[in-house]
Amino acid sequence: MMAPVVVRYGDPPMHTLKPSTSSTPLQGPQRKAVLRVQVLMAEHDIRFVTELWKRLTAMGVEISHSQLTRVVNNSTKSLSIDLLEGLASLFDCPVSALFKDG
């Protein structure tokens, strides 16, 4: 079985990174993509992360409850393609509808 592909957002492209000339640590970039999972859950009458987790696992999407909670709370740093496809399928929307500009 192949390892899942992970999409990371929030990291700047490598060509935009500049070497630091000061001794202060670099601040992370502002997020440009914000997940809309809470909104979509409300639109589909899914009130709890546990219910969403059960539906996704029934579809064959492998994700822990705690990781899904981070996704719903928009505090995750990475997303698998399987999860994105599962959410899009569950909410009957294109993958792009899972995000909004931050």
TrEMBL record:
Chain ranges of the HTH cro/C1-type domain: 63-98
Membrane spanning stretches: none
Region called Disordered, residue ranges: 9-29
Composition-biased stretches (Polar residues): 18-27
Protein name: Helix-turn-helix domain-containing protein
